[in-house]
Amino acid sequence: MKLKSVFDASEIKSEFESAGINPNFMIPIWKYVIQNPDCVWDEIPSLPTAAYTLLHSKFKTLTSSLHSLFHSSDGTTSKLLIKLQNGAFVEAVIMRYDTRLGLCGGKPRPGGVRSTLCISSQVGCKMGCTFCATGSMGFKSNLTSGEIVEQLVHASRLADIRNIVFMGMGEPLNNYNAVVEAVRAMLKQPFQLSPKRITISTVGVVHAINKLHNDLPGVSLAVSLHAPVQEIRCQIMPAARAFPLQKLMDSLEAFQKSSNQKIFIEYIMLDGVNDQEENAHQLGKLLKTFEVVINLIPFNPIGSTSQFNTSTKQSVSTFQKILRETYKIRTTVRKEMGQDISGACGQLVVNQPDNKRAPGTVEPLRDIEDLLL
């Protein structure tokens, strides 16, 4: 029988309640496992006898393992290749930002280094975005809530994680229940992350956006818009056919009205496709009634066969200037991190390591998005 992750909150809660065990014992169990990654169940102190029996028979401390770890040369980025219980692989990426850089009100910024973890929600993705390598994998499987939380457990041993962004492999809102359950676990002890420090990204799964605020109040929403009109969206994002732009905008309006939160708009810059001045004006008009932050993303070609080219710096600058000055929309250009460990936006595609390779070495991996908040 396949054992379940102890970080699968609904499973352990259900099993404990059925056995007459207080489900609140889940919290000290999680805390102990995080602090003692190689522990066995009998080492955890002060649990009811029935809890030890149940844990041995149905749960594992971790169902995934950290297979490989890569660090960028500048120390800002760490990439974790995580092996799941079924043999599949996903990646999580730790990005470190120094909040003291630059000025605030003419004075040095307070704070220090903060770490953001980019998490995967699926193995592969069924959205098929033509500029993203993950889409070329097709959809393999959903992650369980425990497998999602375990990415945070592995990363927490390397850095003090302050922010979570669901921008790794997969469409989070296509694995809605597991993502919601995982986020709820992250809000509890011992993780105790703030909902405002968790961002869920989506290509625009309208029916899920419509219920997200009620299920996860305070959690931020990022939308991979990537085009200001439906025709271009369908050209580069096949899933857009199922989520027409007007219906998406209606759902975002409802989300903003109920949540009173800014929405993050992700916009990849593709040379000659969606980066013209006309497109900037179309985007500005589309979003002028919303409270948004637009994040322009330099495109990173996917190997030598990519059908797209990267927009010029001048095109990106002009695009940003139009949105800022004409439409008064806060617009940033994404900072690329971890490029020397294949850490560029939209290029994640995990291949199972070749068994002929030396232990501990893997095929070079392409990587994910890292929203700069």
TrEMBL record:
Keyword terms of this UniProt record: 4Fe-4S, Cytoplasm, Iron, Iron-sulfur, Metal-binding, Methyltransferase, rRNA processing, S-adenosyl-L-methionine, Transferase
GO BP terms in the entry: methylation; rRNA processing
| Signal peptide (residue range) | none
Which parts of the sequence belong to the Radical SAM core domain?
111-340
Q: Which Pfam families match?
A: Radical_SAM
Kindly list the cofactors needed. [4Fe-4S] cluster
Annotated GO MF terms: 4 iron, 4 sulfur cluster binding; metal ion binding; methyltransferase activity
> Which PROSITE patterns would you find in this protein's record?
RADICAL_SAM
**GO cellular component: a single term:** cytoplasm
Q: According to its UniProt record, where is this protein located?
A: Cytoplasm
The record's Gene3D superfamilies line, in alphabetical order, gives: Aldolase class I (3.20.20.70)
Which InterPro entries does the protein's record reference? Aldolase_TIM, Methyltransferase_A, RNA_MTrfase_RlmN, rRNA_lsu_MTrfase_RlmN/Cfr, rSAM, rSAM_sf
Name of the protein in question: Radical SAM core domain-containing protein
